[in-house]
UniProtKB/TrEMBL annotation:
Protein name as catalogued: alcohol dehydrogenase (NADP(+))
A GO molecular-function descriptor: zinc ion binding
Cofactor(s) this protein cannot do without: Zn(2+)
PANTHER family on file: ALDEHYDE REDUCTASE
A family per Pfam: ADH_zinc_N
Species of origin: Kineococcus rhizosphaerae
Keyword Zinc: yes
């Protein structure tokens, strides 16, 4: 029998989210049932709940930064046991057979990965996410949360953590490398912490100096306001890597000018409209203008282990479910330091 669990759902693009009940499937042979303890609020949740990225399939329960405890495992599950602390991120399944799945990059599954919410599972049912008290996921898409990490600060690692860890790892952040992070929000604050832990020299590029104290406390070595034109002349040609975490239109030519020869500006934010970039900014200095999309399951586990080893969690504000709608307004207004996390016991 499917299990009924409490959740919070968006029922239209314009109405506030409200208490709702959803069904979770029976635990199949390869499934893990998870009692969700905390769910982070990612800006993608808001875009989906409000149909800003195309029409959502209502009612939709969003949330893809999930941390909890295993309550039941299927007969063929080998990786997990009841009581294990685990997390689930942006995807819950994929074909498992294509070249990208084989390579452990399930996010690029050629048949399309199955999103944690607003997607359709292999059972033909809509997937529903983490703003709920339990979830059933095939074991291959479950990650272990090491003992050193508290579940509330671990939850945001499943999206914000891997989204920033993957490009930092791929582009070689580490000792002797100068890394800049554009924007100090939910993604940016994780990028600063992780890049610092990797041993890079970290600079925050933020609109103003309002969060400078936080930035330095989180591990940045330098902090500059991009509203100050002197920033761009002072930092010209300096960085091996720039991770852009903002989803706004930027003067990308100006940011490219901050890169050293063969440096990379990697985007994890998604502005709604096409951007403008002069090819001179890329070709001159043989630079890279790149993007990065979450990470595979194997890399997500590597990131969780790395964060536990270095004592890195997200900076969180834990809220009860009744504050979800208010929290959305605050995320949109950039009024959060630095991630809201829902205590799912309050659903
Ligand atoms: Zn997310
Ligand atoms: Zn695949």
């Amino acid at each position: 029998m499917p299990t009924t669990v409490k959740a919070y759902a968006a029922t239209s693009a314009t109405e506030p989210q409200k208490p709702f009940e959803i069904q979770r499937r029976d635990v199949g042979p390869k499934d893990v049932a998870i009692d969700i303890k905390f769910a982070g609020i990612c800006h993608s949740d808001i875009h989906t709940a409000r149909s800003e990225w195309g029409p959502a399939n209502y009612p939709v329960v969003v949330g893809h930064e999930i941390a909890g405890v295993v309550t039941e495992v299927g007969s063929e599950v080998t990786k997990y046991a009841v009581g294990d602390r685990v997390g689930v991120g942006c995807m819950v399944d994929s074909c498992g057979e294509c070249v990208n799945c084989e390579a452990g990059e399930e996010q690029f599954c050629l048949k399309g990965m199955i999103g944690t919410y607003n997607s359709v599972g292999k059972d033909g049912e809509p997937t529903q996410g983490g703003y709920s008290q339990a979830i059933v996921v095939t074991e291959g898409f479950v990650c272990r949360i090491p003992d050193g990490l508290e579940l509330d600060v671990a939850a945001p690692l499943l999206c914000a953590g891997i989204t920033t860890y993957s490009p930092l790892r791929h582009w070689g952040a580490g000792p002797g490398k100068k890394v800049a992070v554009i924007g100090l929000g939910g993604l940016g604050h994780m990028a600063v912490k992780i890049a610092h832990a990797m041993g890079a020299e970290v600079t925050v590029l933020s609109q103003s100096l309002k969060k400078q104290e936080d930035g330095l406390r989180l591990g940045a070595d330098h902090y500059h306001a991009t509203s100050d034109e002197d920033t761009f002349s002072a930092l010209r040609g300096q960085f091996d890597l720039i991770v852009n975490t903002v989803s706004a239109q930027l003067d990308f030519d100006k940011y490219m000018s901050l890169l050293a020869v063969r440096g990379a500006l990697v985007n994890v934010g998604l502005p709604e409209d096409p951007i403008s970039l002069r090819m001179f900014s890329v070709v001159g200095g043989s630079k890279n203008f790149a993007g990065s999309n979450i990470g595979g399951i194997r890399e997500t586990q590597e990131m969780l282990d790395f964060c536990a080893e270095h004592g890195i969690g997200a900076e969180v504000e834990v809220i009860p479910a009744e504050k979800i709608n208010e929290a959305y307004e605050r995320v949109v207004a950039s009024d959060v330091r630095y991630r809201f996390v829902i205590d799912t016991a309050t659903l």
